[in-house]
Amino acid sequence: VQLQASGGGLVQAGGSLTLSCAASGFTLDYYIIGWFRQAPGKEREVVACGSVYGSSTYLADSVKDRFTISKGDAKNTVYLQMHNLKPEDTADYYCAVRYGGMPSICARDPFNGMHYWGKGTQVTVSS
Fold it and tell me: Within its chain, how far is the Cα of 20 from the centroid?
């Protein structure tokens, strides 16, 4: 079981990036996928949650009008599309999965059940 986040980089404020989370060794079909981020000196926080089997998603208030979580073009892949990036979005971004449930669970207990984590991908937004 492996998750791999990729797509991070350096971007100017107002720019866009798309992160990918690719799963191997299992299928994402029955999992909730969460995107999390951790800025230096801060706690890890949830950014978005979604699934490949439904259309409902959860987005943190800080990114609600700028980020989208969606099923990837490749099988077993989920995207985090980030637009209008701000310096405060600078962080290491991680994807994680939990079996079953609905993305809305991320609103109240985002870390519960997220048993598998990928290594992070760094996003730096310059002002």
Answer: 8
Alpha-carbon dihedral angle through residues 111, 114, 120, 122, given to the nearest 10 degrees? -40
Q: How far apart are CA 81 and CA 69, in angstroms?
A: 6
97: which residues sit within 8 A by CB, 6+ positions away?
A: 3, 23, 28, 31, 32, 33, 34, 114, 115, 116
Q: Quick one: tokens of 42? A: 């801060």
Measured in whole angstroms, the distance separating CA 116 from the mean position of its chain's CA atoms is 13
Mapped onto helix, strand or coil, the DSSP state of residue 104 is helix
Tens digit of each residue's pLDDT (9 = 90 or more) over 34-86: 999 999 999 999 999 999 888 899 999 999 999 999 999 888 999 999 999 99
Backbone φ and ψ of 23, nearest 5°: -105, 140
